[in-house]
Amino acid sequence: MKRIYFILFFLSFISTLFSQTKDENDFYQLDKAREHIKSGAIEKGLKFIDSILQINPSNPYAWELKGSLYANEFNDYYKAIINYKKFEAIFPDEALNLANIGKNYFKLDSIEQGKKYILRAFEIDPYNEYIIVQYAYNISKSVSEKVKLYQNALIVSKLKLEQGKQPTKSVMRDIYNNLGYNLYVNQQFMESTVSLLEGLKYVEESDEYFNNLGNSLQRLNYLQNALDYYDKALQIEPKKVFSLNGKANTFQKLQQIDSACIYWKKAIDNGYVFKEEWREIWNIEDPKLLLSKYCSD
Q1: Which of 18, 69, 250, 268 has the fewest CB within 10 Å, making it most exposed?
Q2: Is there a single domain that holds both residue 2 and residue 109?
């Protein structure tokens, strides 16, 4: 479902541009494709897009929509880039499309190509919240700079909302999640929690988001609430090792050692690897040591 929200972001963009097309059949077919995608019938939507491109291979919006399907529904980032580049050949300076190409290059670990496209997108449109998120996530290295960028993306989004432009759920979720996470990394736990709670209205299912909120709440000693959000993360991804270990550490704070032992073991069994620097940075311990100290075999 969260991937469909991302696709709808591009559908809304496409619908505003389609008033410019002269081919009414293209318009009708893409409208049908949008309807199928919104209903979850992705393959049918793709067939409608392909039927457009067979007749009119110069339709840029069909290429962009096809790229978004490969990127966000099929996780085929190579094919996504191919389709986005068809759009680029027609509109070389469309910043959103450039950002999408860059994002998918990063997915393929083609770092230099990814940087090139996202930097170009950011130069063209530095006040687009989606492009800011891509720049912050993929290029910015400093935590403090990331925080400022995500805050700026939030300002841009709220100003658009004041103008009557409805924000896209997936983009807003990413802004709040990434802002909350980087505030947490900066050990600004109160600010992190406030950001993550404020963004919940944009979240349906996200194990990463719920885990981040669980971590922040645990640091503020809202322990039962932290457990609730770890549970939400684990309902989506039962083997999420950071949620398993976070839940164990929360039980330890609650002095429920038997429960803590269960979840330390689950975290280890599912591949949790402790890094020594976490001991000093986060004041947490290796669950293997905690198991040997507190738990019987």
Answers
A1: 18
A2: yes
